[in-house]
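Need residues for this backbone.
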């Protein structure tokens, strides 16, 4: 089993920056991809960004490229989402998830953390 715990959400002003962290435990991070997703109020969950733990390949939602970045901390087994120049439309519950090599979908999910951007 894999446990994912998000932290760092909160209320910020438009234009601010915020960093979210996803702590991964319970299974080796080799051969896994950690993704961040978000679900705005009243909308479907959407992909934000992901990073392959080994090799560091990053995939973005194109519209967020340039504002959102992702990094991993091998020593702490965490993946961080850095969000800059936040907008009201970035308001959502943010989730991290893990997909292992051979899996079609993300099989493991955190509980989510709320990000609210006031305009």
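Answer:
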């Amino acid at each position: 089993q894999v446990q994912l715990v998000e932290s760092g959400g909160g209320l910020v002003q438009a234009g601010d920056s915020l960093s979210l962290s996803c702590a991964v435990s319970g299974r080796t991070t080799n051969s896994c991809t950690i993704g961040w997703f978000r679900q705005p109020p009243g909308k479907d969950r959407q992909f934000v960004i992901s990073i392959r733990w080994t090799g560091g390949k990053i995939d973005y939602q194109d519209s967020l490229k340039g504002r959102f970045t992702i990094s991993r901390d091998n020593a702490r087994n965490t993946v961080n989402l850095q969000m800059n120049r936040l907008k009201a439309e970035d308001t959502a519950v943010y989730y991290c998830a893990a997909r292992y090599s051979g899996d079609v979908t993300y099989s493991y999910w955190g509980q989510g953390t709320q990000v609210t951007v006031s305009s």
